[in-house]
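Reference record
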Amino acid sequence: MDVLNISPGDLRTRIRIQKRKTSRQPGEIASKTEWIDIGNISDDDPPKYKRCQWIGAHGDETFSDDALQGTHFATIRLRYDPRVDETCRVLLGGDAWEIISLDDVRQLHRWMEIKLKRKAAG
């Protein structure tokens, strides 16, 4: 029995999950930060897409102090990937979403549920 009862047809949304990579060349003072898709070696590699179930936040769960600042919330469900952690970010189209929390559902290493937030421009 599958814990979340998700069928492959529910995984319609294409996203990219990226890790931050910080580097500094010899002689440089400032370090360079770039975001690289999980599974890639450099930002020159082609994008690595994952499929997920995207659930936008609606109703009472969207109203908080952050709502006045134009913060959007969402939850995604996808197949478990041990490389994903709270330091990663999620790209949906051109929008970057911050990971608030993630859950290895029932610690079975089959599905992950990730809570996201994004500040609206402005």
